Amino acid sequence: MKILALDSSAKTASAAITDGEQLISEAFVNAGLTHSETLLPMVESVLGLARLTMADIDGCVITDGPGSFTGIRIGIAAVKGLAMPNETKCCGVSTLKATAYNLRYDNCIACCAMDARCSQVYSAIFRCFDGKVERLTEDDAIPASKLPEILEKYANERIICVGDGAHIAYQAVKDSFKSVSLAQDSRRFQRAYGAACAAVCENMDFLPPAQLLPVYLRPSQAERELSLKKAHEK
Fold first, then answer.
1. At 150, which helix (H) or strand (E)?
2. What does pTM read for this prediction?
3. What's the CATH code of the domain at 23?
4. Torsions phi, psi for 46 (to 5 deg)
C-alpha cells in the first residue's frame, strides 16, 4: 500500500511516501516558514523523488491533532485537496501517537509532549517495545508540572521525552526520575513517517477525505479570549 503522509501540526512540517512501513522518500523542514509555503512543495518533492503521482497513492495519512490550530487546519485541508480528485481514502492519526513511533524500537516509556504554551503541554504516554507502540494514557492538555505524577508508576523504567515539547517535559521530570532522557534531535520531532507507520501497524481505517476532522484538546486562544470577554460583560 503506497501512502502519502503529512504533518504540519506544529513548527516543523514533513511529508513522506511509504510502501506499507517501508520509507520511500521523505522531506522535513524546521526553518520557521509557514506551512502554507512549505507543505505542497514538499509533497511535490517526495512524489517526484519516488517517481509517483497522486494517482499512484493508495491512501493519505495526516496528523490530525493535537497541535497548532492553524497547522492542523492547513494539513487537513491540504490532504483533502490532494485526495479528493482520485477519491483517495484518508486516515487521521494522533500527532502524539505518531511521535511515539520515533521510539518504537527503543524499549522505553515514551513521554510524548508538544508545546501548548502557557506552561502547558499536549501529552500522552506510550510504551515502546520490539517495534510496537502501546498507548498508556490518552492525549491531554496539561500543566507540565503534572508529568512527574503521571509518570510515577513508570519510575523504574527507561523514560524518553520526545516531541517538540520534549525539552519542557524533561525539565519538569528530570529531578524526579533517574532514567529519563531527551530523544536525539534527529528523532525528537513529530514526523509524517511516524504517522504512516502508526496507520499501517495498527490497521487504522482509511475513510473518504470529507470525513477527516481536526482533533483539538482545548479551545483556540481567540475562542478563550472571546469567552472571557463575554464573561466580563455579564
1. helix 147-151
2. 0.92
3. 3.30.420.40
4. -70, -35
